[in-house]
Amino acid sequence: SQTIHQWPATLVQPVGSPLSLECTVEGTSNPNLYWYRQAAGRGLQLLFYSVGIGQISSEVPQNLSASRPQDRQFILSSKKLLLSDSGFYLCAWSGRGSHGTQYFGPGTRLTVL
Amino acid sequence: AQSVTQLGSHVSVSEGALVLLRCNYSSSVPPYLFWYVQYPNQGLQLLLKYTTGATLVKGINGFEAEFKKSETSFHLTKPSAHMSDAAEYFCAVSDPGGGADGLTFGKGTHLIIQP
User: A74, A33 in Cβ contact below 8 A?
Assistant: First the structure.
Protein backbone atom coordinates (compact mmCIF):
# COMPACT_ATOMS: atom_id res chain seq x y z
CA SER A 1 0.00 0.00 0.00
CA GLN A 2 1.02 3.60 -0.49
CA THR A 3 2.12 5.88 2.30
CA ILE A 4 3.20 9.49 2.41
CA HIS A 5 5.53 10.99 4.98
CA GLN A 6 6.25 14.58 5.93
CA TRP A 7 8.83 15.99 8.27
CA PRO A 8 9.27 17.70 10.49
CA ALA A 9 5.83 17.57 12.10
CA THR A 10 6.28 20.97 13.74
CA LEU A 11 8.79 23.75 13.24
CA VAL A 12 9.38 27.12 14.84
CA GLN A 13 11.68 29.41 12.90
CA PRO A 14 12.76 33.05 13.21
CA VAL A 15 11.96 35.56 10.47
CA GLY A 16 14.68 35.58 7.84
CA SER A 17 15.84 32.02 8.46
CA PRO A 18 15.86 29.33 5.74
CA LEU A 19 13.30 26.55 5.42
CA SER A 20 13.33 23.00 4.16
CA LEU A 21 10.30 20.72 4.40
CA GLU A 22 10.45 17.22 3.01
CA CYS A 23 7.82 14.88 1.65
CA THR A 24 8.31 11.30 0.51
CA VAL A 25 5.91 8.78 -0.94
CA GLU A 26 6.23 5.00 -0.74
CA GLY A 27 4.54 2.24 -2.68
CA THR A 28 3.96 4.00 -5.98
CA SER A 29 5.95 5.18 -8.97
CA ASN A 30 5.89 8.42 -10.95
CA PRO A 31 3.24 10.13 -8.81
CA ASN A 32 2.04 13.68 -9.24
CA LEU A 33 3.11 15.60 -6.13
CA TYR A 34 1.61 18.69 -4.56
CA TRP A 35 2.39 21.26 -1.84
CA TYR A 36 -0.49 23.09 -0.16
CA ARG A 37 -0.63 25.68 2.60
CA GLN A 38 -3.42 26.29 5.09
CA ALA A 39 -3.29 29.59 6.91
CA ALA A 40 -5.23 29.84 10.16
CA GLY A 41 -8.97 29.72 9.50
CA ARG A 42 -8.52 29.51 5.76
CA GLY A 43 -8.88 26.84 3.11
CA LEU A 44 -6.25 25.10 1.06
CA GLN A 45 -3.91 27.06 -1.17
CA LEU A 46 -2.05 25.09 -3.85
CA LEU A 47 1.59 26.25 -3.89
CA PHE A 48 3.38 23.87 -6.26
CA TYR A 49 2.81 20.68 -8.17
CA SER A 50 5.11 18.31 -10.02
CA VAL A 51 4.50 15.68 -12.68
CA GLY A 52 8.05 14.32 -12.69
CA ILE A 53 11.64 14.69 -11.53
CA GLY A 54 12.80 18.26 -11.93
CA GLN A 55 9.40 19.42 -13.23
CA ILE A 56 7.84 22.03 -10.95
CA SER A 57 4.83 24.25 -11.59
CA SER A 58 4.23 27.22 -9.32
CA GLU A 59 0.70 28.37 -8.61
CA VAL A 60 1.44 31.37 -6.42
CA PRO A 61 4.44 33.73 -6.74
CA GLN A 62 6.15 34.08 -3.38
CA ASN A 63 9.41 33.54 -1.56
CA LEU A 64 8.95 29.77 -1.51
CA SER A 65 10.37 27.26 -3.97
CA ALA A 66 9.99 23.55 -4.56
CA SER A 67 12.22 20.82 -5.92
CA ARG A 68 11.82 17.19 -6.85
CA PRO A 69 15.25 15.57 -6.81
CA GLN A 70 13.90 12.02 -6.87
CA ASP A 71 10.73 10.41 -8.21
CA ARG A 72 9.08 10.14 -4.80
CA GLN A 73 10.63 13.07 -2.98
CA PHE A 74 9.28 16.61 -2.92
CA ILE A 75 10.96 19.45 -1.03
CA LEU A 76 9.61 22.87 -0.11
CA SER A 77 12.21 25.56 0.59
CA SER A 78 12.73 29.18 1.38
CA LYS A 79 15.88 31.24 1.66
CA LYS A 80 14.35 33.79 4.05
CA LEU A 81 11.10 33.17 5.91
CA LEU A 82 8.46 35.85 6.39
CA LEU A 83 5.89 36.06 9.18
CA SER A 84 3.22 35.41 6.56
CA ASP A 85 4.77 32.01 5.80
CA SER A 86 3.35 30.62 9.04
CA GLY A 87 0.75 27.92 8.46
CA PHE A 88 0.07 24.24 8.04
CA TYR A 89 1.86 22.74 5.04
CA LEU A 90 0.44 19.68 3.39
CA CYS A 91 1.99 17.41 0.79
CA ALA A 92 -0.19 15.21 -1.39
CA TRP A 93 0.21 12.71 -4.21
CA SER A 94 -1.99 11.37 -6.96
CA GLY A 95 -1.51 8.45 -9.29
CA ARG A 96 -2.03 8.13 -13.01
CA GLY A 97 -5.61 7.24 -13.84
CA SER A 98 -6.83 7.99 -10.33
CA HIS A 99 -9.46 10.53 -11.50
CA GLY A 100 -7.46 13.22 -9.74
CA THR A 101 -7.79 11.60 -6.31
CA GLN A 102 -5.19 13.08 -3.99
CA TYR A 103 -3.83 11.47 -0.84
CA PHE A 104 -2.44 13.73 1.83
CA GLY A 105 0.42 13.54 4.26
CA PRO A 106 0.12 14.37 7.97
CA GLY A 107 1.30 17.94 7.50
CA THR A 108 3.93 20.26 9.00
CA ARG A 109 2.96 23.08 11.36
CA LEU A 110 5.30 26.02 10.68
CA THR A 111 5.41 29.01 13.01
CA VAL A 112 7.55 31.97 12.02
CA LEU A 113 8.35 34.34 14.88
CA ALA B 1 -12.61 27.27 -14.87
CA GLN B 2 -14.03 25.22 -12.08
CA SER B 3 -15.22 26.46 -8.73
CA VAL B 4 -16.66 24.94 -5.57
CA THR B 5 -19.00 26.59 -3.09
CA GLN B 6 -19.60 25.16 0.34
CA LEU B 7 -22.57 26.82 2.01
CA GLY B 8 -21.89 27.58 5.64
CA SER B 9 -18.40 27.91 7.04
CA HIS B 10 -19.74 26.42 10.28
CA VAL B 11 -22.53 23.89 10.76
CA SER B 12 -23.72 22.82 14.21
CA VAL B 13 -25.86 19.74 14.83
CA SER B 14 -26.85 17.76 17.89
CA GLU B 15 -25.42 14.32 18.50
CA GLY B 16 -27.72 11.79 16.82
CA ALA B 17 -29.16 14.34 14.38
CA LEU B 18 -28.86 14.35 10.60
CA VAL B 19 -25.68 15.87 9.18
CA LEU B 20 -26.04 17.78 5.90
CA LEU B 21 -23.07 19.63 4.41
CA ARG B 22 -23.75 21.42 1.17
CA CYS B 23 -21.50 21.59 -1.88
CA ASN B 24 -22.24 23.15 -5.25
CA TYR B 25 -19.82 23.28 -8.14
CA SER B 26 -19.38 25.12 -11.37
CA SER B 27 -17.80 23.24 -14.25
CA SER B 28 -18.09 23.20 -18.02
CA VAL B 29 -18.10 19.40 -18.02
CA PRO B 30 -19.37 16.89 -15.46
CA PRO B 31 -16.49 16.72 -13.01
CA TYR B 32 -15.19 14.12 -10.65
CA LEU B 33 -16.30 15.01 -7.11
CA PHE B 34 -14.72 14.41 -3.72
CA TRP B 35 -15.29 14.94 -0.01
CA TYR B 36 -12.37 15.05 2.40
CA VAL B 37 -12.31 15.30 6.18
CA GLN B 38 -9.61 16.98 8.25
CA TYR B 39 -9.24 16.51 12.00
CA PRO B 40 -7.26 19.12 13.95
CA ASN B 41 -3.57 19.22 13.08
CA GLN B 42 -3.88 16.33 10.64
CA GLY B 43 -3.85 15.90 6.89
CA LEU B 44 -6.93 15.47 4.74
CA GLN B 45 -8.54 12.03 4.54
CA LEU B 46 -10.65 10.95 1.59
CA LEU B 47 -14.25 10.30 2.68
CA LEU B 48 -15.75 9.42 -0.69
CA LYS B 49 -15.67 10.25 -4.37
CA TYR B 50 -17.88 10.20 -7.42
CA THR B 51 -16.41 9.50 -10.84
CA THR B 52 -19.01 7.68 -12.95
CA GLY B 53 -21.92 5.31 -12.47
CA ALA B 54 -24.25 5.32 -9.47
CA THR B 55 -24.89 8.86 -8.32
CA LEU B 56 -25.29 7.91 -4.65
CA VAL B 57 -21.86 7.26 -3.24
CA LYS B 58 -21.15 5.69 0.13
CA GLY B 59 -17.99 6.48 2.02
CA ILE B 60 -16.26 5.79 5.28
CA ASN B 61 -17.65 6.52 8.74
CA GLY B 62 -21.28 6.25 7.57
CA PHE B 63 -21.18 9.24 5.23
CA GLU B 64 -22.71 9.34 1.78
CA ALA B 65 -23.18 11.91 -0.97
CA GLU B 66 -25.38 12.19 -4.02
CA PHE B 67 -24.33 13.71 -7.31
CA LYS B 68 -27.17 15.75 -8.81
CA LYS B 69 -26.19 17.02 -12.21
CA SER B 70 -29.30 19.17 -12.65
CA GLU B 71 -28.55 20.99 -9.41
CA THR B 72 -24.74 20.91 -9.82
CA SER B 73 -24.58 19.64 -6.25
CA PHE B 74 -22.78 16.99 -4.24
CA HIS B 75 -24.11 17.31 -0.70
CA LEU B 76 -22.67 15.17 2.09
CA THR B 77 -24.99 13.47 4.57
CA LYS B 78 -24.90 11.20 7.58
CA PRO B 79 -28.11 9.99 9.26
CA SER B 80 -26.87 10.24 12.85
CA ALA B 81 -24.03 12.46 14.00
CA HIS B 82 -21.40 11.24 16.45
CA MET B 83 -19.13 13.40 18.55
CA SER B 84 -16.19 11.95 16.61
CA ASP B 85 -17.56 13.56 13.40
CA ALA B 86 -16.48 17.00 14.60
CA ALA B 87 -13.94 18.13 12.01
CA GLU B 88 -13.40 20.29 8.92
CA TYR B 89 -14.93 18.98 5.70
CA PHE B 90 -13.78 19.92 2.21
CA CYS B 91 -15.58 19.40 -1.08
CA ALA B 92 -13.40 19.23 -4.21
CA VAL B 93 -13.76 18.75 -7.95
CA SER B 94 -11.45 17.71 -10.73
CA ASP B 95 -11.84 18.08 -14.46
CA PRO B 96 -11.83 14.68 -16.18
CA GLY B 97 -9.93 16.20 -19.04
CA GLY B 98 -7.81 18.48 -16.95
CA GLY B 99 -4.15 18.65 -16.21
CA ALA B 100 -2.05 17.59 -13.27
CA ASP B 101 -2.84 20.69 -11.26
CA GLY B 102 -5.55 18.54 -9.85
CA LEU B 103 -8.33 19.37 -7.48
CA THR B 104 -10.23 22.59 -6.89
CA PHE B 105 -11.25 22.78 -3.22
CA GLY B 106 -14.07 24.58 -1.49
CA LYS B 107 -13.25 26.73 1.51
CA GLY B 108 -14.36 24.08 3.97
CA THR B 109 -17.15 23.62 6.49
CA HIS B 110 -16.42 23.21 10.17
CA LEU B 111 -18.83 20.66 11.63
CA ILE B 112 -19.65 21.12 15.31
CA ILE B 113 -21.43 18.38 17.22
CA GLN B 114 -23.45 19.47 20.25
CA PRO B 115 -23.86 16.88 23.03
Answer: yes
